[in-house]
Design goal:
- This protein is α+β, with helices and mostly antiparallel strands.
- The chain has a single domain, classed as Aminopeptidase.
- The chain is built from four helices and ten strands, in the order E-E-H-E-E-E-H-E-H-E-E-E-H-E.
- The strands form two sheets. Strands 1, 2, 3, 6, 7, 8, 9 and 10 form an eight-stranded mixed β-sheet that branches.
- A hairpin with a 3-residue loop joins strand 8 and strand 9.
- Helix 2 packs across helix 4.
Length: about 200
């Protein structure tokens, strides 16, 4: 079964050490590389193979982003700090009239970018709502559409992002945030704090 790596997101200054969101990366199992990733089994009909054909890639070249989730009470945007660089040390309880920055979903995808780089994959695949793709594009995380929307845990479309340019267009104000997340991911991998388990077939 595909290998799963997932990690909780704990931005300091919001709820201490309580996880408030989760992101999951699924990679091919090197011991059973013939096993498809979940999107290949459930969403292949949505992919326009003239734009992106998974069959052209070897196992391990593509990873899947899934289960990007945030606890309901933290799905609101948090105020954008006045400083030029965005940091995860942001208080949820600042003034309601301040400019707001979607720190949690953006941070979850930055964590997925880090995991994709650490997995040495060429592409990341995600089924997501178009409005989320537009939000990420605003901050330089460019997911390209490769098909049509389908009803898959809600109305979602297939998107891919290439590792070699995934961070090139990143908004410079996110550099500090990505650096902190990447360091945390590297430390978690070294300490085997990521969850590694096999995916139960649907």
């Amino acid at each position: 079964m595909p290998l799963i790596r997932q990690g909780p997101f704990r931005p300091q200054g919001i709820v201490g050490n309580q996880p408030i969101g989760c992101a999951r990366l699924i990679a091919h199992d090197p011991l059973r590389p013939e096993r498809p990733l979940p999107y290949e089994r459930h969403c292949s009909s949505a992919i326009n193979k003239a734009l992106f054909d998974p069959d052209e890639f070897l196992p391990g070249q593509i990873v899947e982003f899934s289960r990007i989730a945030v606890l309901e009470e933290f799905r609101r945007k948090v105020p954008k700090p006045n400083a030029g660089a965005i940091s995860p040390q942001i208080s949820q309880r600042q003034g309601a009239g301040a400019n707001r920055f979607p720190v949690i979903p953006v941070s979850l995808f930055l964590a997925l970018m880090s995991m994709m780089v650490l997995a040495d994959a060429d592409y990341g695949f995600a089924m997501m709502e178009p409005k989320l793709q537009r939000l990420l594009r605003r901050f330089g995380l460019i997911f390209e559409p490769v098909g049509e929307p389908i009803d898959y845990h809600g109305w979602r479309s297939p998107y891919v992002i290439q590792q070699h340019n995934a961070l090139r267009g990143l908004n410079p104000s996110l550099d500090n945030l990505y650096s902190q997340i990447n360091q945390s991911m590297q430390a978690g991998l070294a300490d085997q704090r990521w969850a590694h388990r096999t995916l139960t077939p649907a």
